[in-house]
Design brief:
By secondary structure, the chain is α/β, with parallel strands linked by helices. It has a single domain (19-197, 206-215), classed as Rossmann fold. 24% of the residues lie in helices and 17% in strands. The protein has helices spanning 19-22, 34-46, 84-88, 129-139, 161-164, 168-182; strands spanning 58-62, 76-81, 95-98, 116-120, 145-150, 189-192, 210-215. Strand 4 (116-120), helix 4 and strand 5 (145-150) form a beta-alpha-beta unit. Helix 4 packs across helix 6.
């Protein structure tokens, strides 16, 4: 998909007003179901970036909230999000940063300090995703993973129009393309981390959880 073209309307939104207004009320809720949440934690454990890893890890959680979905929290967890109260309620966090990445995509963090970066069910809201992910590449150590997870739920007025226009496979392709255009990463890998959604007669009806991952280039 390296020839993917984003139309001029792709990053428009139904509600273009300042995000700090929309996210001002704390939302101490989860935005995916228990099965999808478990899949996020299992992926973090599989990648060796949580607190069960053999060595302590330092992780950046972008567009975070009151919970970061690690089975075991990492030794150091920097959470960056829009709502101060939500971040304060995140008991796994060791550092909290309130920042609107749609207003300012530059991370107030030094180069090459994180063992991993994650972003859970929020990539669909970024209007400058390649700029943000280029910053993620800057703050990661060589070989460190970036983990972008998402489902089919969102706040539709704040998701970019391009996201809303795509099916799940298309969204996986777009997130992978964001990483390619950001630069500094290995070729992204996209996968479904929950059982495939079933038709009416199937047994699994939970939220799908997709993951696009890549490593910071050496």
């Amino acid at each position: 998909m390296t020839d993917l073209v984003f139309p001029s309307w792709f990053f428009d939104r139904d509600d273009p007003s300042s995000d700090d207004r929309f996210y001002a009320p704390p939302r101490l809720v989860t935005h995916i179901d228990e099965g999808a949440i478990a899949a996020v934690g299992a992926l973090y454990a599989e990648l060796g970036i949580d607190g069960a890893a053999p060595r302590p890890t330092t992780v950046l959680d972008l567009m975070s909230s009151w919970i970061s979905h690690f089975q075991v929290p990492p030794a150091r967890l920097t959470v960056l999000g829009m709502n101060r109260a939500e971040l304060a309620a995140n008991t796994a966090a060791t550092e909290r940063i309130v920042q609107d990445l749609n207003r300012d995509p530059v991370l107030p963090l030094p180069d090459g300090v994180f063992d991993a970066a994650v972003c859970c069910v929020s990539i669909d809201y970024l209007v400058q995703p390649t700029e943000v992910l280029a910053e993620v590449a800057r703050v990661l150590k060589p070989g460190a993973p970036v983990v972008l997870t998402f489902s089919n739920r969102c706040f539709p007025t704040k998701a970019v129009h391009g996201w809303l226009s795509l099916d799940d496979a298309g969204r996986c392709g777009v997130v992978a393309e964001y990483l390619r255009r950001a630069g500094g990463f290995t070729e992204p890998r996209a996968e479904l981390r929950t059982p495939a959604p079933q038709d009416q007669g199937g047994s699994y009806r939970g939220d799908p959880l997709y993951a696009v991952t890549a490593l910071r280039a050496e």
